[in-house]
Amino acid sequence: MSLGQQLAPHLPFLRRYGRALTGSQTHGDRYVRATLEAIVAAPEEFPRDVDPRLGLYRTFHAIWNSTNYDETPENMAVGDGDGQEAIARARLARITPLSRQALLLTAMEGFTPEDAGYLIDVDVAEVEALVAEALTEIEKQTRARVLIIEDEPIIAMDIETIVRDLGHDVTGVAVTRDEAVALAMEDRPGLVLADIQLADDSSGIDAVKDILAEFEVPVIFITAFPERLLTGERPEPTFLITKPFQRSTVKAAIAQALFFNQATVPAA
């Protein structure tokens, strides 16, 4: 099997990671593209002594570190737009990129602390410390009003508990497209958590499109069918969680989505 064939199944999830790390589909995809270009240009330098997925993410981090690891806010690639970029830069000044990498690699991408340590060149104890630091700092920095679009009551209750435990408010829980749009128009949320398949066979994707047509809001899709959204075609979501999910995964995604969002307000 060629190297390209070995890496192909992991590319959609590397794009997800790049977008979550940068808060931008454009910036995240740019890093992934640079990663692939580096592999094509020098395939002999690709790590062959580890699993191909680890090698792929390791190469991505080499690209990220070469252009983005300077911890001064002026040198960090962040979200699109001057206003959003200024907010993200202010927050990046208070939390190191390395801690966010450790959090996303373990909580969202499912790497073990050992593998995450390999990817960011630290030991296991430091990975665990970085993850704790990231959660503490991000949870202090952001809070929002959250709309949940989910038709399975148990899952909706679990998500609502996670959201409230993080200090956010829930504006409502919608189970259909029409209900989701109505709730969003009645009380504009600062974040939307959306399933794809809803109770009346309507689509959470369509609900989100309807909401985004009225106002901008960050969206996290939570779905058992990530392949429907990670097709390689635009637009794709910046933040995506796969069911069944861990509570830590949802917490990490919420924190990162709000990290780049101008609709959030500082915690008191």
Automatic annotation (TrEMBL):
Q: Does the keyword Aminoacyl-tRNA synthetase apply?
A: no
Q: Sorted alphabetically, which SMART domains does this protein's record hold?
A: REC
Modified positions (4-aspartylphosphate) are: 195
Q: Identify the Pfam families for this entry.
A: PhyR_sigma-like (PF22233), PhyR_sigma2 (PF22029), Response_reg (PF00072)
Q: Which PROSITE patterns match?
A: RESPONSE_REGULATORY
Xref: Gene3D superfamilies:
1.20.140.160, 3.40.50.2300
Q: Which domain of life is it from?
A: Bacteria
UniProt keyword terms in alphabetical order: Phosphoprotein
Coiled-coil stretches, from where to where? none
Annotated Response regulatory domain ranges read: 145-258
UniProt protein name: Response regulator
What is the source species?
Sphingomonas psychrolutea
Encoding gene per record? phyR
